[in-house]
Design brief:
By secondary structure, the protein is mostly helical. The chain has 12 helices and no strands. The termini are far apart.
Length: 235
């Protein structure tokens, strides 16, 4: 059997890559683009730099994404899917307070990392350039987190005897989940976005969630579902 000539070898190289290889190239491009966009923002990033970081040629990138804007949108949406939702949140504990503390600590541990914080910052920074993307990202993140936490709270209500509280009624769970996130998660997230050291913030998670969950449960037991209560009459 003869040795293939140069033309034959080139023909093999130029053929369509195997599907698995194409998928790896796609992942490599998105990983590299995420790193560059999060470090430099949309304006400061260049497709040349992304191509170099991905070990891929610019034609390879443009064959998949027609512009830097399209690539940016794909990167941000992928990061949102990867960093939202609480499907894997740990909820261990013997009491409702212990389990909520574990859930809050799990959410904060995942959020207080460079990638999620960078994602939020770059999305806010580019909101005027990509208003539809910013709205979509905000909605997706809120819905995924609230819906996921509402499912966890429903399980708590069944197993921990809190179902009698109005705040844990099935129709109130989305609202209750939102309030929990605002009490237990949002304050530390805002501090991170304003530049506080992430390692120092993670060290505060335990005391923070202990106080926040205690306050949240006290409010649920004392006030129930605030939406169902009439507003006080003006003095």
């Amino acid at each position: 059997m003869g040795v293939a000539g140069p033309a034959e070898r080139n023909a093999v190289r130029c053929g369509r890559p195997p599907r698995g290889h194409a998928g790896k190239v796609e992942e490599r491009i998105l990983d590299a683009a995420a790193k560059v966009f999060l470090e430099r923002g949309f304006t400061g990033a260049s497709v040349d730099e992304i191509a170099e970081a991905a070990s891929a040629g610019k034609p390879t990138i443009y064959a998949r994404y027609s512009s830097k804007e399209t690539l940016f949108s794909a990167v941000i949406e992928r990061l949102v899917r990867r960093n939202t939702g609480i499907e894997v949140v740990a909820c261990a504990g013997a009491t409702i307070q212990e389990r909520l503390e574990t859930a809050a600590a799990s959410i904060l541990t995942r959020l207080l990392r460079p990638e999620p914080i960078g994602l939020i910052r770059v999305t806010v920074a580019e909101a005027r350039r990509f208003p539809d993307l910013a709205t979509s990202v905000s909605r997706m993140a809120k819905e995924r987190q609230t819906e996921g936490l509402a499912r966890v709270l429903a399980e708590f209500a069944q197993n921990a005897g809190t179902g009698a509280l109005p705040a844990f009624a099935p129709n109130c769970l989305p609202f209750t989940a939102k309030q929990f996130l605002e009490v237990a998660v949002l304050p530390m997230l805002i501090r991170a976005l304003f530049g506080e050291d992430l390692d120092a913030l993670r060290a505060e998670i335990g005391p923070h969630v202990s106080k926040s969950v205690a306050f949240f449960l006290a409010a649920c037991r004392a006030g129930g579902d605030a939406r169902a209560r009439p507003l006080p009459s003006p003095a």
